[in-house]
Design brief:
Blueprint: E1 2-4, E2 24-35, E3 38-46, E4 61-65, H1 70-81, H2 84-88, H3 90-96, H4 103-128, H5 143-174, H6 201-204, H7 216-225, H8 242-259, H9 263-273, H10 276-288, H11 294-301, H12 309-320, H13 326-331, H14 340-373, H15 377-380, H16 385-397, H17 402-435, H18 437-441, H19 443-458, H20 466-476, H21 480-510, H22 516-540, E5 545-546, E6 549-550, H23 553-567, H24 569-580, H25 585-593, H26 599-604, H27 612-616
Antiparallel strand pairs: 1-2, 2-3, 3-4, 5-6
Helix pairs in contact: 1-9, 1-14, 1-17, 3-14, 4-12, 4-14, 4-21, 4-22, 5-8, 5-17, 5-19, 5-21, 5-23, 5-24, 7-16, 8-17, 8-19, 9-17, 10-14, 10-17, 11-14, 17-19, 20-23, 21-22, 21-23, 24-25
Length: about 625
């Protein structure tokens, strides 16, 4: 049977250069089947003789699962992008950097860099139907950046799961008639523990309430959960806490059984984990704005100041989650003709609106706390673990039905963390499974090995001195390295593969070519933006601290070694690729930058990247 191959059956790693010069193919079999709500396609295409050579598949029989429903994909992307940072980082950054004024550069960077990079990763994964490493068949020398982002996603899993374990521990602790961080009469409290009712501006002096470590809530976190008072520093870790080990085991089991069957299992879990935070945030906002002092907190949240540009540029990048290989992995399970342009606009907008919305829920409660203790908003405002594990729980403990509010709040943290962790693990599993077929054939075993490996490393973070390991990983595992990875990714796609060819790939999928705005952003604006953020990240880096503890020099060396271990994948793989291909120096370069299906053109001397037209094309 002779039919024209339509786009939905074009599952090649790279498509032909011209969008409409599609040749006749013989199709032996096209089978569409449905298993447990997940559609599979399997077709064997036989090439007919032609003067023009079409791209070759890595395997003639392509069998890749797709999302059962479009909503599965959208919720998975939103669930990954909307994480704990939306609650514990964005509101504080917005307040610290001028409130309403922060939204001006934040929105600008969203449109000129955030959305274009988000769109690029979705399109790259969907068109090539591969994970973060094997997607670089389009330009083999850049495959190292695929390993970079996979390593980073793995490193993040080492400590991110610990935050989920803390949330789970707080959730279990909340299931009591009286919240354990309400009074100073617990076994973990120090003799200096002070009842919050007696803390005011005169007690604090020049310090801030957020940094005051002698409240019941602060001591519950520092002494009851972390036991950091039993450690002298990063050199004195001690044994893992058995309560946190149990919580971490529960987290690992949740992750494993959410991921073991691929997107047909994780795509259903996100119906709960991606939607629950919105419901809880709405409930917390309604409760928060009814508290005395809430409007003062919201006014501070939206105040005006203009020195905010670097913070806004960095936050928009981290907020959207580009560069972890997750968007590429998720999009690779889409149907070929899925409208990823619409998906990119929708999901990135939802993520940023969620960040802004969460600020109202947070700062209405901070305003209440400030009024309760007679201090300014700046004295209670903080970010990170101090916000969600000390300040907010303390505020909740003073409300009627405090146990219920605590349970709701920590369920939200749990769901925010789980689907983001699932995304990171999926990037690792998909990225390596697509590269090493033995791992794909044994996905369940490989999934278990991955989550169990993160569990073993995470044990270091739940020792007495584990907070120092956690801080080290949090600062170095996905800091400058992830910015560097996305910079190289943007250069590889837009310059070496070619933004014009990338646009033609998108046209094959969706029937329309990206506008000039997107192409200019991909080729010029986004790389320049990323270069700016990378330089700002390096220049602004300093010695690591946790509260008053200053990390020793060797700890900073270890941190930079972790960062470099992922970044060095780019040059090391490039050198390996150059040395492993045959030919003269020029031919080796050509093989490295030419898509794998066009390697025959190297022998013909017809290398696109050696022509000025390629570099000038938009």
């Amino acid at each position: 049977m002779n039919i024209q191959v339509m786009p939905e059956h074009k599952l090649s790693s790279v498509a032909p250069l011209k969008p409409y010069n599609v040749e006749k193919k013989e199709v032996e079999l096209i089978l569409v089947k449905d298993q447990n709500g997940v559609q599979y396609t399997n077709s064997s295409i036989i090439e007919t003789p032609s003067p023009r050579r079409c791209p070759a598949l890595s395997a003639r029989d392509v069998d890749r699962e797709t999302w059962g429903k479009k909503l599965d994909f959208l919720l998975s992307v939103i669930g990954f992008a909307v994480d704990l940072a939306n609650v514990w980082r964005f509101p504080y950054l917005c307040y610290k950097n001028g409130g309403g004024a922060f939204l001006i550069p934040y929105t600008l960077f969203l449109f000129i860099a955030g959305m274009p990079l988000f769109y690029m990763e979705l399109a790259l994964g969907q068109y090539n139907r591969q994970g973060a490493a094997t997607v670089w068949r389009i330009c083999p020398v850049f495959k190292g950046v695929g390993y970079t982002v996979i390593l980073i996603a793995l490193y993040v899993g080492f400590y991110y799961n610990v935050i989920i374990a803390w949330s789970l521990y707080y959730l279990f602790s909340s299931c009591s008639s009286e919240l354990p961080w309400l009074h100073c009469t617990n076994k973990w409290n120090s003799p200096n523990c002070t009842d919050p009712r007696f803390i005011n501006g005169s007690v604090l002096g020049n310090g801030s309430y957020a940094k005051y470590k002698l409240t019941p809530a602060a001591e519950f976190y520092e002494r009851g959960v972390l036991h950091s008072h039993e450690s002298k520093g990063i050199h004195d870790l001690g044994a893992p806490r058995w309560e946190l080990i149990l919580c971490l085991v529960v987290v690992v089991f949740i992750l494993y059984f959410s991921l073991w069957k691929g997107v047909k299992s994780s795509g259903k879990v996100v119906y709960v984990t991606a939607t629950m935070p919105y419901l809880v945030l709405f409930v917390l906002l309604i409760r928060g704005i009814t508290l005395p002092g809430a409007l003062n907190g919201i006014r501070e949240y939206l105040s005006i100041d203009l020195q905010v540009w670097i913070e806004a540029a960095t936050q928009i990048f981290y907020s959207l989650g580009a560069g972890f290989g997750v968007l590429i992995a998720f999009a690779s399970y889409n149907k070929f003709d899925n409208n990823c342009y619409r998906d990119a606009l929708l999901t990135s907008t939802v993520n940023c609106v969620t960040s802004f919305f969460s600020g109202f829920a947070i700062f209405s409660v901070l305003g209440y706390m400030a009024q309760k203790h007679g201090v300014g908003i700046k004295d209670v405002a903080t970010e990170g673990a101090g916000l969600v594990f000390i300040i907010y729980p303390e505020a909740i403990s003073t409300l009627p039905l405090s146990t219920l509010w605590a349970i709701i709040f920590f369920i939200m943290l749990l769901t925010l963390g789980i689907d983001s962790s699932m995304g990171g693990m999926e990037a690792v599993i998909t990225g390596l499974s697509d590269d090493f077929k033995i791992l794909k054939r044994n996905r369940k075993l490989f999934t278990f090995a991955t989550v169990f490996g993160t569990f073993l490393i995470a044990l270091l973070c739940i020792t007495n001195g584990g907070i120092y390991i956690f801080t080290l990983l949090d600062n170095y595992a996905a800091g400058t390295s992830i910015l560097f990875g996305v910079l190289i990714e943007a250069i590889g796609v837009s310059w070496f593969y070619g933004v014009d060819r990338f646009s033609e790939d998108i046209e094959r999928m969706m029937g329309f070519k990206p506008g000039l705005y997107w192409r200019l952003c991909w080729k010029f604006v986004s790389p320049a933006f990323l270069l700016f953020v990378v330089i700002a990240s390096i220049v602004s880096s300093s010695g690591l601290k946790y509260d008053d503890y200053v990390f020793p020099g060797w700890a900073n060396v270890v941190g930079w070694s972790i960062a470099m271990s992922s970044m060095l994948c780019v040059p090391f793989y490039a050198i390996y690729k150059f040395l492993s291909v045959p030919g003269s120096f020029k031919e080796r370069i050509a093989y490295c930058v030419t898509p794998e299906h066009e390697h025959h053109l190297v022998a013909e001397g017809n290398v696109r990247q050696f022509k000025l037209k390629h570099w000038l094309a938009i």
